[in-house]
What we know:
Layout: E1 2-5, H1 20-28, E2 32-38, E3 41-51, E4 55-63, H2 72-77, E5 84-88, H3 95-104, E6 108-109, E7 116-120, H4 121-130, E8 141-142, H5 148-164, E9 177-181, E10 184-195, E11 198-206, H6 212-227, E12 235-239, H7 243-253, E13 258-260, E14 263-264
Parallel strand pairs: 4-5, 11-12
Antiparallel strand pairs: 1-2, 2-3, 3-4, 5-13, 6-14, 7-12, 7-13, 8-9, 9-10, 10-11
Amino acid sequence: MSADFLDILNIDDYRHLIPGELFNGAKSGEFTCIGGTFMDEPAGALVCEDLKGNAVLIRSIYVEEPYRRLSVATDMMELIAGKKIYFTYEATGDRATLEPFFEAMDIYTQRLDCPMGFLTLGEIDKRLRALGTSKVPESGVTFSDLEPKDRETVLKWMESYLDERGEAYDWVHPDSVFLMEDSKVKACVLISEVEEGLLSVDLVYFEPGSNPKKLMGLFAWLMVNVQSDYDDSTKVRMLMTTEEGKKLFGKIIGDTEIIVPIVTAA
C-alpha cells in the first residue's frame, strides 16, 4: 500500500476513481490529486484544493470497495496531514464511513451547523451583474457612516439578536451594512476579515415581510464598499446561518459547490 501525488503522466490510470466533473481540473493542476495503490494497482483517489491558512478543501475521496479497510485512504490522507481539512457536500456522501475513518486516524471531528459557499469578489461582482442588481437600488448605510445614535442602536440590537441565537460578535467591520428605518434595524449584512485574502459574510438579517429586493440592494452596496478596499481575487466565505442568508446566497452562488466544514486535523 502506498500513495503519491498524481500528475499528467499517471493521472489517466485513476480516471475511474475521480468524479468526471473534477477530472479535467485535476489533470490540469487546478486541483491537487493523490492516488492510492494496493499491490501496485490504483485503488483510490483524493482530489483537493489548497486554501489559505494551511488548509485544504477535499472535493472527492474515494476508495474502490475491494480495497476498503486496507489503509488506502489513510495513506492518501497522510500526504495532507497537519492541515485544516474541509469537505464539500459531494465528498461527504458516505458520512457513516467517513467519521469512524477520521476518528481512527486521531483526527478531531468538528461538525458545524451551517454550510457555506466560497466565491471571489470578482466572481460575486459578475454574478450580481448577471442578476441585474444594477437595476436594484443600492440601499443601506455602512457601519462607519452611521450616525452615532444609530451605531448605538445597532450595537444594542446586535447584542439582543445574537444573544437569542446563542452567538456573540465582538467587533463590527466598518463595511458591514445596515438598513435603518425609524431608528430600527430592518436588515443587515455583517462581514469580517478572517485573514489576509479571506472575508466572511457572517450574518444576513432581514425583517420578515420587508421587500426582498432591498436585501439584494443591501448586499450589492456591501460589495461596492468592500471592492474599494480589497482585491477582486479576495475570497468571500458566505455562512448560511439564517433562512434569509440561504435564499440570498442561493441566488448568488447558484451551482457553486456548497462546503460543509466537518473536520479539523489535530
